[in-house]
Amino acid sequence: MATANLVDVAVYSPDHRLQLVVEVHTKTKATVEWVANMRRNLFAHGVISTSPYFLLALPDKLCLWTNASSPFDVVPPEYEVDTAPLFAKYLGEPVVALEELSEFGLALVVRSWLNDVIYSNLTRETAQPDQLWLLDSGLYEAIKNGSARTEAA
Fold this sequence. Notes:
The protein has 5 helices and 6 strands. It has 153 residues and is α+β, with helices and mostly antiparallel strands. It has one domain. A 6-stranded mixed sheet has the order 5-4-3-2-1-6.
């Protein structure tokens, strides 16, 4: 969905520093090689700017990289997370399959989920097993009480 210098979702800390750039794509069953190359290509072609965290949101999984690696290197994500349990409550009744959503629809689901994460009160004790990666990666602390929006990079 990203076009030149447009991110699907940008997430800022409470002090308005860019923490997370999210690219949404409708490809399913993407290989580790595909997601690693996609990330590298987005940065190499200047489609998105660098931030401490980069999330590639696909219908079936989220792929998260931290700033531990160069955005121009082809490296696998540090975290791969199944979207089904994370996004289930955003799919309505009757349930719409994530694979059937357009990029715009998937971006809305991702942004809704991110807004819930931003304003949640996650701790190791309260987090569900499928939320622990948010704490382990440091992403939750980076975006807690921040803001998510679609905007030019």
